Amino acid sequence: MAVSGTFLVFALFAFVFTHFLHCVISYDRPSSRDFVSVPLPNDLDSSSPQQVHISLVGANKMRISWITEDKTPAKVEYGTSSGVYNFSATGSTNSYKYLLYKSGEIHNVVIGPLNPQTVYYYCCGSNRVREFSFRTPSSQLPIKLAMVGDLGQTGWTNSTLKHIASSNYDVMLLPGDLSYADFIQPLWDSFGRLVEPLASKRPWMVTQGNHEVEKFPVLHTKSFTSYNARWHMPFEESGSDSNLYYSFEVSGVHVLMLGSYTDFGNGSDQYKWLEADLAKVDRNKTPWLIALVHAPWYNTNFAHQGEDESVEMRKAMEGLLYSARVDIVFAGHVHAYERFTRVYDGKPNACGSVHITIGDGGNREGLASKYIDPKAEISVFREASFGHGQLVVVNASDAFWTWHRNDDDEPVVADSVWLRSLEVDPNCKNMQI
How many separate domains does the chain show? Predict the structure, then answer.
């Protein structure tokens, strides 16, 4: 898959591009840990499935995605006992080119219907040597959602993934900036191999960030080529016409995955989709309503202040989320952690969303450690450390949020809060903007 002769070209461009960014960005980021590259293991051949990850499709199906170097069948065999595959399904295969790079064969197969809270064993393609397994989420609350943004491929990433793996989560939510390939396409392959041990066992639901754009002037003018090819999310099922924004439901939670780097203004396709999607939400079925977006709408860090993707998107869409009583909005982009009180239009509001920035997964650019002082009234807790979050939705009314700092490679709970769903607050039932 990787074209060795082009790697240095990509690396040189990335160095120049990154150096330019550091010259114009006004805040300093401390050094991250070393980059981690995950090569293809020696015991895998060109027909072996690699970079396996899964994602939810509707209430009882799962998309299995993987890559092979050779052309192999887009077929998944699966069952509830190891080595015994009573079911099979077929899907589609695609590939893409980016300058001189050509990807491997990217396979996507949707399997199901599946039973809730059940372990399934599966094999991909024509290769039965590698057996994988996953556990489906429960059909009802409680549910544990892992949350991490701006993940990257560093030593800190390894710590974060290790901590998440030990948390026994049900679904991973990632608000953008996955691989930090930044034009160097072989790094997408390395990232896929890095996250496979987790992403093949639990569904990963992702949205895009600025590092997924990868638009190259003149030479490659299409955005999100690799992201869209490799991370196919269930946008069709939610009525969206773009892999950059969609929604899904799991247990008693309706999740909005919004796109910071595609049109979001009033009248845009994304805006009209969001308006229609929110109108269909049944809070009796999904009492919790949360949203993910890459660029945070609220931010007291010096990093990424005043960007259109934050300011203009908030102006365009915050009213829709407020009217729908969205409980929590998670974001990435800023390489630090910050939790806000319930807020609307820049002010504390008991019926507004809790905004949480979780862009501290382990990226190579380091942490955004400079905050604006004095701290704004709406900011409750902020810290520039790598880590991850967990949201345990206990029942229709209560959820428990914890943020786990990577402290000397141990996951230390540094911030926590009980949250009450806006659906059960009688004062917010009939609110008007």
Answer: 2
Can you list the alpha helix ranges (DSSP code H) found in 260-344? Answer: 269-279, 308-323
Task: Give the CATH number for residue 99.
Answer: 2.60.40.380
- Residue 93 sits in which domain range? 50-135
Are both 110 and 169 inside the same structural domain?
no
Whether 304 is a known active-site residue: answer: yes
Domain at 220, CATH number: 3.60.21.10
* pTM score, whole prediction: 0.92
> pLDDT tens, 272-315?
999 999 999 999 999 999 999 999 999 999 999 999 999 999 99
pLDDT digits (tens, 9 = 90+) for 176-213: 999 999 999 999 999 999 999 999 999 999 999 999 99
Q: How does the average pLDDT of the chain come out, rounded?
A: 92
DSSP-based three-state secondary structure for 338: strand
* Nearest-angstrom CA–CA distance, 375 and 373: 5
For residue 432, name the pLDDT band (cuts at 50, 70, 90).
Answer: low
Please say which residue of 103, 135, 167 terminates a domain: 135
Residues 211 and 87 in one domain: no
Catalytic residue among 53, 254, 304, 388: 304
Q: Is 61 helix (H, G, I), strand (E, B) or coil?
A: strand
Pairwise CA distance, residues 170 & 202, whole Å: 6
Rounded CA separation 202/145 (Å): 11
Tokens of 321: 């989320």
Give the angle subtended at the CA of 330 by the CAs of 327 and 336, to the nearest 5°. Answer: 140
Which letter does DSSP use for residue 39 in this model? P
Q: What is the Cα 322 distance to its own chain's centre?
A: 23
Q: Rounded to the nearest 10 degrees, how much is the dihedral formed by the CA atoms of 417, 163, 183, 212?
A: -30
DSSP structure class, residue 321? H
